[in-house]
Every structure is written in C-alpha cells, then in structure tokens.
Amino acid sequence: MRLVAVSAGLSSPSSTRLLADRLAESVRDELAVRGSDVTAEVVELRALAGDIANHLVTGFPAPRLAAAIGAVTGADGLVVVTPVFTASYSGLFKSFFDVIDPNALAGKPVLAAATGGTARHSLVLEHAVRPLFAYLRAVVVPTAVYAASADWGAGGDEHTDGLTARIRRAGGELAALMADRPAQVDPADDVTALEQYLADLRFD
C-alpha cells in the first residue's frame, strides 16, 4: 500500500510538514495493526513551486513535478496539509492540485489538515479544503485536523480533543478507508489481460 503526504509549508522546518509527518505516522501505525504493509512518501510543494508555476503557463511538467504528480495520483491514500493564508488554503497548495487531472483523485481516500497561528481559522478545512476535494470526487475522512500554534503540546479540554487525539482518530479513519479500498490495477496489467483475452478468442 502507498501513502503520500502533501505538505505546502513554506519554511524549513515548518509546522505544516511536522503535522504531515505525524498524520502519516498515525496512518502507518493503524495499518500495521491491521496487518497491512505501507510505504510512505512526503511531497514538499515548497521545492516544486517554480515547476508548478511553469506548468501552469506551459502545460508541461518538469521531471520532478511529474514524479510528484505520479506519486499523488498513484497513492492508495493521501494526507494533504496546507498553511492558512488569507482565511483559505495557500496558493501553492491550490496550484499543485490545479495541475493534476481533475479525474485522477476520484474515489481516493484523503485526510485533510491545515496549520495556522490561531484557532479562529480552523473552519478553513470545512469551507475551503473539504469542498476542493469534494469537487475532485475524492473521499475525505470525517475528521479534519487543524493545528494552531497553541495546539502543539496541548491536551485539549472538556469540549475539544487535543491535537494528539485528533491525529490518532483521523489516522484511523484514513487507514480504514485504505484497507477497505480495492487494490489499484496497473494499466500495463490491463493491456496484458486484454492481449491474453484476444489470444484466447483466436481459432486455429
């Protein structure tokens, strides 16, 4: 199984990348409990910013960007994390998903997350990020994870789970969807199967 985390953090290190790593770890742990092997990869959009901009105006992805797009579209599950910019996802985050074929994420399990300086922006996940992936016909898990600066190391209260508990719950939801999803078929296998089918139809 393949898990890909997309981080749109702009600094290095960044809280966005840290959240992506923790969510990916939670998904891996949950899948391990279920007896599933998973490989995890992180796509750092910061390193691809120039390639993304060039692709938007030329229509041709550079090799590094093409590899990142292939990793995302070929994954069995995605963790996507954006910093909050002007009460929405970042332009870099949106631009990356703009260069992906609109049909490529249909049915793919996605865990959506965001980081910001204050809890006031937490609804960005519901009014911006979730609708984006609903439009792409991805399957977004119920628990979206928002991490404000004050959430790191906090344990929550009687009304709200702490960040660690939310990460664990969201990771479990994505792992469940990935484990129940039918295995993806390599297009090359389809070609081989078709050739065999046609061969079987031939008569001597």
UniProtKB/TrEMBL annotation:
<dbReference type="InterPro" id="IPR051814">
    <property type="entry name" value="NAD(P)H-dep_FMN_reductase"/>
</dbReference>
<dbReference type="Pfam" id="PF03358">
    <property type="entry name" value="FMN_red"/>
</dbReference>
<dbReference type="InterPro" id="IPR005025">
    <property type="entry name" value="FMN_Rdtase-like_dom"/>
</dbReference>
<protein>
    <submittedName>
        <fullName>FMN reductase</fullName>
    </submittedName>
</protein>
<dbReference type="InterPro" id="IPR023932">
    <property type="entry name" value="CE1759_FMN_reduct"/>
</dbReference>
<keyword id="KW-0288">FMN</keyword>
<dbReference type="InterPro" id="IPR029039">
    <property type="entry name" value="Flavoprotein-like_sf"/>
</dbReference>
<keyword id="KW-0560">Oxidoreductase</keyword>
<keyword id="KW-0285">Flavoprotein</keyword>
<feature type="domain" description="NADPH-dependent FMN reductase-like">
    <location>
        <begin position="1"/>
        <end position="151"/>
    </location>
</feature>
